[in-house]
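User: Working on a comparison across species. This one is Peptidase M15A C-terminal domain-containing protein from Microbulbifer hydrolyticus. Can you predict its structure so I can line it up against the others?
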Amino acid sequence: MDIKETPDHEFIDIHIERRRVIWIVALVLICSLVLLVLTVEKVRELAERIVSPVEYIEPVPMPEPLDPDVPLIYKIKGYTAATAIAFEKFLDEDDHRAHFEKLEHFLKINEVDDVVPPFELMRQGTDWQKIGEPPFAIPPEENWETMVDTLKVLRDYIIPAIGPVHVLSGWRTSSYNAKAGGARTSKHMHFCGLDMIPEDEYTRKQLLPKLRRIHRKVGRRWNMGLGIYSGIRFHVDTCGYRRW
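Assistant: Here's the predicted structure for Peptidase M15A C-terminal domain-containing protein from Microbulbifer hydrolyticus:
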């Protein structure tokens, strides 16, 4: 039997088709609106970047691991010294790193941070292994100022005359000084004195006249102490005019 659609069925189909068209149009409008909003945001973001570019912050490199093959101790012209690698290990203990960074900043603002490697100023001496003391120590902040003039004498007079130097002994704790047989009034305990050797090749006979000439010329002005030990090791401080 053939089924014929009545006019009512035709009306229903037309109504459904209209609703479908309305939904499609509404969906298209919604999508267009969303796309418009996103486009506006992108344009605004791009404009902000053009007007105020984002500052590039260089990533901080991770510290490289210590090379186990690098020695912690070496000889400098016959003198035993702890290396920069040994100092890095020392900084990893307690709060040494933060304390040392503060000291480095102090030296920098006083324009004496590049006279010698700052870590060398922390060397207590060359006999730490024999007396059972740490190879390095960091002076308390109240002692820092006394080193400034000593480094200036080094920078302005000693190094121009004899070339770069290695610091064998800088700051010393009272414990280290006592065990090492240092003087009770040692300027090392005030972070004022440095024991050094020249990097260049010198005989004692060549070195002594140069150092004594500097002491005669500027010693009083800088309250400079000059001590000359055996070989080519010598001492400089700015905490008392004298010579030995």
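For your comparison, note: Helices lie at 7-51, 84-91, 96-109, 128-131, 145-162, 174-179, 204-218.

User: Helpful, thanks.
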